[in-house]
Amino acid sequence: MDLNEFVKHFAEQFDEIPPEGFKPTTVFKDIEDWSSLTALSIIAMVDEEMEKRITGADIRASNTIEDLYKIVQSK
Amino acid sequence: MYNPFSLAGKTILVTGASSGLGATAAIECSKSGATLVITGRNSERLTNTFSQLEGSNHNQLQYDLTVKESIDELANALPSLDGLVLCAGITKTIPVKFISNESIDEIFQTNTISSMQLIQKLLKLKKINKGGSIVFISSISTSYADKGNSIYAASKGAINSFSRVLALELASQRITSNCIQPGFVPTRMLAEGAISEEQLLEEQKKYPLGFGEPADIANGIIYLLSDAAKWVTGSVLTIDGGVTLR
């Protein structure tokens, strides 16, 4: 999965925000709708779409969507 | 010495005894005088629990209760029991939107269905003695909701309901059936998952009495197994450090 596709899947986890609002450089924890449930959804999305396991710690270690993408790629 | 909570002379099965609450429950029951039969999936860890049991005549049987045939085999291999402690359990944190049939099957088979199947078989074989006790390890999650915990919570809620019907059906044999709903007790099952130290500290703040230890749950199990609880059936005992008070 390339970065743009990852951003798209990432954006899908937010119900209130249109996907155009998301870029690789988006600092996702600053998004108003960001919550513990979104974090769980991101973990589940990575598992389902990419068959990789990430943890809450990986999400905490990332600021932008691209940061997280790189962590997923390194797994 | 007078001790209404003694388990001396009782033969007790503990499932899920290879780790976590099950391991501690088995060890504490042995200290209270019980003769244990322990089962678990992981033979190495099961042997580790077995080596910590006090007293003699204990037995360990390695079975994977996710397989129906194994449950039948286990039931056939077991002696007559005075107590059953059903601790086998797994969890998976996953939002409802991402639930798969696979996750539902896996969690329900381990947490719920295997216990129902084992008890059915043991009753059929008449291997639960009169005056015996069945203790299910349920969870506060049956009513205390946590995001991502839906399947686990549902699997334990089913156990609470099952236990009450079982209690009614077995009352004529003086066999009791009860559930314990533990709050968060740090064990291997949880340590393995995605929970960080930071999250753990955050979680601990919600507990008026702080986190519990596995022995806090094991002591509740011992009570329900002992003759002291012979008039207690169909109940749900919450042991949670007060987390569900608010």
Task: Please outline the helices and strands.
The complex is a heterodimer of chains A (75) and B (246).
Chain A lengths: L2 H10 L23 H15 L5 H5 L4 H10 L1
Chain B lengths: L10 E5 L4 H12 L3 E6 L2 H9 L7 E4 L5 H10 L3 E6 L14 H24 L3 E10 L12 H21 L5 E7 L5 H4 L5 H8 L9 H12 L10 E4 L7
Parallel strand pairs in B: 1-2, 1-4, 2-3, 4-5, 5-6, 6-7
Architecture overview:
The complex is a heterodimer of chains A (75) and B (246). Chain A has 75 residues and is mostly helical. Chain A has a single domain, classed as Non-ribosomal Peptide Synthetase Peptidyl Carrier Protein, Chain A (Orthogonal Bundle), CATH 1.10.1200.10. Chain A has four helices and no strands. The longest helix of chain A has 15 residues. Chain A starts with a helix and ends with a helix. The mean pLDDT of chain A is 92. Chain B has 246 residues and is an alpha/beta fold. Chain B has one domain: NAD(P)-binding Rossmann-like Domain (Rossmann fold, 3-Layer(aba) Sandwich). In chain B, 41% of the residues lie in helices and 17% in strands. Chain B has a seven-stranded parallel sheet, with helices on both faces.
Features:
heterodimer, A: 75 residues, mainly alpha, Non-ribosomal Peptide Synthetase Peptidyl Carrier Protein, Chain A, 4 helices, B: 246 residues, alpha/beta, Rossmann fold, 7-stranded parallel β-sheet, 41% helix
